[in-house]
Write a structure and sequence with these properties.
A hairpin with a 5-residue loop joins strand 8 and strand 9. The chain has 327 residues and is of the alpha+beta class. It has one domain: Jelly Rolls (Sandwich), CATH 2.60.120. Helices cover 27% and strands 18% of the residues. The protein has 8 helices and 12 strands.
């Protein structure tokens, strides 16, 4: 079990690294040890790296290649897949700005463009036939051969890893391993794959972000980073920490629903992206959230007299979308 210290030699908080290999292989004692490491990371910074996570590097490389292929298309081709009314498809530069943040003001539209992919449900799927609110229609580009297939292959791999992370969250909170994966809130989860493009930042626009300071809205995020730096995390002590891009690692962070449902026990850490490299930067975050219609209290092992009021993910996201997305 490899869990590196969260403090460097100067006493500044660093990002923990958790080896998932023993847990995924069922090694003796790995459940408790890995859950304990996750609990410490979630109660501390709220971000951690995982290695030996079971997702082949070739799949991650394929996702980055697909991201670059899409964003390299002519603008008029991308605009044919533009998100309209819902956060599905292409959002051009400036299409999202973090107006709800309390951790720093965006003085100009965020300098990033995105392509959003949602879970696909066949025409005869019961949830589609019932018109469930978590069923979306993806807006695929018409002229990018193999793009849809590559996205959905990566999507499935991230969804599988997401289930393992939910199991570890449940164990870390002293619950049964399947307490979250069997809960109505995650049957099914609401997944969202975001393919991000950050152009080089204009040094003259001081105060413009690739993505402004924010916390993620969902339950947790699995992030594949590019080789270029840019992501910064706000520590509990008020320091911005730059997240390195570690080969073979994925970066995990808690979202606002995780913070609420653990009764503030697990931290949803503010973070931001500033592309200072002078090069084009890409990243491929995968968001795992609860169902939009499930209202729930915090998890049983986290209850207290100050327990937050129930709130459905759908209610929360409806307010966020009004303020942050130009659809």
């Amino acid at each position: 079990m490899d869990v590196r210290s969260t403090l460097d030699h100067a006493g500044q908080m660093q990002i923990p690294i958790i080896d998932l290999g023993p847990f995924l292989s069922g090694a003796p004692g790995a459940e408790a040890a890995t859950a304990g490491a996750l609990r410490e990371a979630c109660e501390g910074l709220g971000f951690f790296f995982v290695r030996n996570h079971g997702v082949d590097q070739a799949l991650i490389d394929m996702a980055f290649a697909a991201c670059q292929r899409f964003h390299s298309l002519p603008l008029e081709h991308k605009m044919a897949s533009r998100a309209v009314g819902k956060v599905v498809g292409y959002l051009p530069l400036g299409g999202q700005t973090q107006r709800t943040s309390v951790h720093g003001e965006s003085v100009a539209p965020d300098l990033s463009a995105s392509f959003y992919v949602r879970q696909e449900f066949p025409a005869d799927h019961p949830d589609r036939l019932a018109g469930q609110p978590w069923v979306f229609d993806n807006r695929w580009p018409a002229d990018l051969q193999g793009f849809r297939e590559d996205c959905l292959t990566y999507f499935a791999a991230m969804a599988g890893l997401g289930d393992r992370l939910l199991e570890l969250h449940a164990l870390a909170l002293g619950m049964a391993r399947d307490a979250m994966t069997s809960h109505d809130a995650f049957r099914p989860p609401t997944y969202n794959l975001r393919m991000l493009h950050y152009p080089p930042r204009d040094p003259a626009l001081d105060g413009q972000f690739g993505i402004g300071p924010h916390t993620d809205y969902s339950y947790c995020t699995i992030l594949a980073q590019s080789r270029l730096p840019g992501l910064e995390i706000l520590s509990p002590h008020g320091e911005w920490i730059e997240a390195p891009a570690l080969q073979g690692h994925l970066l995990i962070n808690n979202g606002d629903m995780c913070r609420r449902w653990t009764n503030q026990r697990f931290r949803s850490a503010p973070h931001r992206v500033i592309n200072k490299t002078g090069e084009t930067r890409y990243s491929v975050p995968f968001f795992l959230g609860p169902r939009l219609d499930v209202r729930m209290d915090c998890w049983p092992t986290c209850r207290s007299d100050e327990n937050p009021a129930p709130l459905s993910f759908g209610d929360y996201m409806a307010e966020v979308n009004k303020k942050n997305y130009d659809l």
